[in-house]
Design goal:
Order of helices and strands: HEEEHEHEEEEE
Radius of gyration: 20 Å
Shape: globular
Helix content: 10-25%
Strand content: 25-35%
Low-confidence stretches: 4-32, 73-80, 202-226
Number of helices: 3
Largest sheet: 4 strands, antiparallel
């Protein structure tokens, strides 16, 4: 759900569309109708519009970040993309546990710098093929819904990987609003097949993930089967 107040990113998008329209009018020489492009315009990506976040990545099938009182048995049978977690208090942060992966200390510092009461941490787990890197392109929310959109790019050529192998990623996103986790009834998330700067409007969502539709253990994340 899109917030009632447009984000800076969407404002820039509207301005870019207006300029494109003016450019088209100025190019007309009166010699006949020009064909209107049918391809949707590229969506300008403004990294500053994405809330602050930290990412963890690991080759294990189990969770990378979890609350100490969450059930962790049978991780091999758990869905690779689990229901998201909303951290709204320092007590929850104290109960977080981390897998032994790179970036844990940076994630802990990020959490310590969060001001609960005016900010909320949204924890989302997303699988990715080992040869690819995910980028967080967009986050939107309301009092009852949260939506995230990711881009995907190939990793550097010097990174050894197997195309069919998968990694787990965990994203800690700092939403600049105190959300009530009990009121959030649904969420959606999508992974596009290109980088954030190459995504087009509107974002494609072939298989939106909702709170009432968690994928089966063998399911793939949206856009992650290419």
């Amino acid at each position: 759900m899109v917030p009632s107040t447009p984000t800076r990113r969407r404002t820039l998008l509207g301005a870019a569309g207006a300029l494109a329209t003016l450019a088209g009018c100025g190019a007309s020489d009166g010699g006949g109708d020009r064909e209107t492009p049918t391809e949707p315009p590229r969506e300008p990506f403004d990294p500053e519009s994405v809330p602050p976040h930290r990412r963890l990545r690991g080759a294990n099938d189990g969770p990378l970040v979890w609350l100490s009182d969450e059930t962790q048995t049978g991780t091999n049978e758990e869905p690779r993309r689990r229901r998201p977690t909303f951290l709204t208090s320092r007590d929850q942060v104290d109960r977080l546990r981390f897998a032994d992966v790179r970036g844990v200390e940076a994630a802990r510092t990020f959490l310590e710098e969060t001001t609960f009461g005016s900010e909320t941490i949204f924890l989302e787990r997303v699988p990715v093929r080992r040869c690819y890197e995910l980028q967080l392109c967009d986050v939107s929310w309301s009092a009852t819904e949260v939506d995230t959109q990711f881009g995907r790019v190939l990793r550097d050529a010097d990174v050894a990987c197997e195309h069919d192998a998968r990694d787990s990623t965990a994203w800690l996103v700092r939403i600049p609003e105190a959300l009530d986790a009990d009121r959030i009834t649904s969420y959606s998330s999508g992974v596009g097949g290109s980088s954030c700067g190459e995504r087009r409007r509107p974002p494609e969502r072939e298989q939106p993930i909702t709170a009432d539709a968690v994928p089966a253990p063998n399911a793939t994340a949206e856009g992650d089967d290419a």
